[in-house]
Design a protein that fits this description.
alpha/beta; 556 residues; single chain; globular; twelve-stranded mixed β-sheet
Length: 556
């Protein structure tokens, strides 16, 4: 069986100008980055955003497992299937982070016959957007420390620095560091911290900004520290906004590439969904809606994280109204939720499937709370048996949802035609009556508890003393009337990654709460979630290499 990268290398790509021309994008509206990828011009982005007419379709999934779910693969294959049906569609995806590429995933461009290309370039550096975000963030940090070194006119409390440095790699030793060691000229010695770039506030600001003016406005609101009186100090206060915007100016333009079947794909931004809001940029989504009849986008990890944030943060802020949702599951993942070890998932086990399918059931119930039609896509594996497939179909239909067995990994768009037809029917039905889960003006605790109980299934929420103090302070400072971005493990509906299936009545533990004022939301840290991941004992980096001809190998 060929690997994803072998399939990708054999593909014959169309020049990016040809892909763009199908959407009415002229050569003067493209900024090429080589032969097969390009950025869209500012003038074109504005024209597209002013003409939003397409249907918006979200692809999400059950909680991720080591067995794999294939959310991006389904997203890409669905877009290819729309093309087979003669529909004008654009896929809108996040850019992959180098953290999971070298950590556990080894790539994030879909799989098999449902990939976006060039997959090696997409996974490794791409057009440099993440480097621009990393540098802008760290420039702000440098200006902050320099302000303190040069006399600290703003009376910044060095014990209350809010802004963290970032790096787009998994590196646990950078979670807690000491900076400023050495001579007096080397700065003030203090504790500092790193986050992975995709969890940084600059990334969130980048993805939620509608244009350069909005970007600068959001950057200016970012709280970098607090002064000795407990008042916020912003990026504007330390005169960082202009130079940060200069670094982000080109990155702010969405990127255009293609699938194996030449379906256009706009790939832009990439916040994690377990520790950030998990959606691609508003600019990318609005551009896709302005140039296609259907925009197919995804949100990270399970529906309890990515979809909830897509609905309650991104759609709320951008005024977007989704027309349909695709919920992805696999029989292997459902059996894993039912207690089957990873090395036994290839064997038929209806008892485990019955035990684990409750995870799918909970996600269906959650998505219906947003009043958007739900189509369940069962992503096929060769180990699936007829009895298992029939059981999942019966379960889904008993929940009042459309169902489709998708074979896009093996067959590309051809394997997703049934799914595409059902998604088109749902999106065109006019049944969507989208509404966010909660009123953003509710108190912080009430919003956290609404998400915890309605989406996760918690019975109660506990707050550490640190979290209680933070909520009190944020309320006093007027940051309580914003959406909440929950930072939680992706592996469980609870904050305990070992609780699979559908845990109920548990206590969700909130250990801290802080504001991302530029992004426009409050972040609640739950359980043991880390904003700088670490590498596993055998990271994917061990298998990634370059052959003698300069070809990347080992991505998957």
């Amino acid at each position: 069986m060929k690997t994803d990268i072998e399939i990708a290398k054999e593909a014959v790509l169309s020049p990016i100008g040809e892909v763009a021309s199908k959407l009415g994008i002229g050569e003067d509206e493209l900024e090429p980055y080589g032969k097969y990828k390009a950025k869209l011009s500012e003038s074109f982005i504005k024209k597209a955003a002013d003409n939003k007419k397409g249907r918006l379709i979200l692809v999400t999934a059950i909680n991720p497992t080591p067995a794999g779910e294939g959310k991006t693969t389904i997203t890409v294959g669905l877009g290819e299937a729309f093309g087979k049906l003669g529909k004008r569609s654009v896929i809108a995806l996040r850019e992959p982070s180098l953290g999971p590429c070298f950590g556990i995933k080894g790539g994030a461009a879909g799989g098999g016959r449902a990939q976006v290309l060039p997959m090696d370039e997409l996974n490794l550096h791409f057009t440099g957007d993440f480097h621009a975000i990393t540098t802008a963030n760290n420039l702000c940090c440098a200006l902050l420390d320099n302000h303190i070194q040069q006399g600290n006119e703003l009376r910044i409390d060095t014990r209350r620095i809010a802004l963290k440095r970032c790096l787009d790699l998994n590196d646990r030793v950078l979670r807690n560091v000491i900076v400023g060691l050495g001579a007096k000229a080397d700065g003030f010695t203090r504790e500092d911290h790193f986050t992975i770039t995709v969890a940084s506030e600059v990334m969130a600001v980048f993805c939620l900004s509608k244009d350069i003016k909005d970007l600068k406005k959001r950057l200016s609101r970012m709280i970098v520290a607090y002064d000795l009186d407990g008042k916020p100090v912003t990026a504007e206060d330390i005169k960082a906004v202009g130079s940060m915007a200069a670094l982000l100016k080109d990155a702010l333009k969405p990127n255009l590439i293609q699938t194996l079947e030449h379906t256009p794909a706009i790939v832009h931004g990439g916040p994690f969904a377990n520790i950030a809001h998990g959606c691609n940029s508003i600019r990318a989504t609005e551009t896709a809606l302005g140039i296609a009849d259907y925009c197919i986008t995804e949100a990270g990890f399970g529906a309890d994280l990515g979809a909830e944030k897509f609905f309650d943060i991104k759609c709320r802020m951008a005024g977007l109204k989704p027309d349909a949702v695709v919920l992805v599951a696999t029989i292997r993942a459902l059996k894993y939720n039912g207690g089957v070890p990873k090395d036994e998932l290839g064997e038929e086990n209806l008892d485990a499937l019955r035990a684990g399918i409750v995870n799918l059931g909970k996600h269906i119930e959650n998505l219906k709370k947003y009043r958007v039609p739900v189509v369940v896509a069962l992503n096929s594996f060769v180990s699936d048996t007829e009895a298992e497939i029939e059981y999942v179909e019966e379960f889904v239909r008993s929940k009042g949802c459309e169902y489709s067995y998708a074979e896009v990994w093996a067959k590309g768009g051809e394997g997703g035609i049934d799914l595409a037809e059902k998604v088109i029917k749902a999106a065109d039905s006019g049944e969507s009556d989208f509404k966010p889960l909660y009123d953003e003006k509710l108190p912080i605790r009430e919003k956290i508890e609404t998400i915890a109980k309605e989406i996760y299934g918690a019975g109660a929420v506990s707050y550490s003393k640190t979290a209680e103090k933070s909520i009190e302070e944020l309320t006093r400072l007027g940051f309580d009337k914003t959406p909440v971005c929950m930072a939680k493990t992706q592996y469980s509906l609870s904050d305990d990654p070992s609780l699979l299936g559908r845990p109920e009545g548990f206590t969700l533990n909130v250990r801290d709460v802080f504001v991302s004022a530029g992004a426009g939301f409050v972040v609640a840290l739950t359980g043991e979630i880390m904003i700088m991941p670490g590498l596993s004992k055998r990271p994917a980096a061990f298998d990634i290499d370059v052959d003698d001809d300069g070809n990347i190998v080992g991505l998957f």
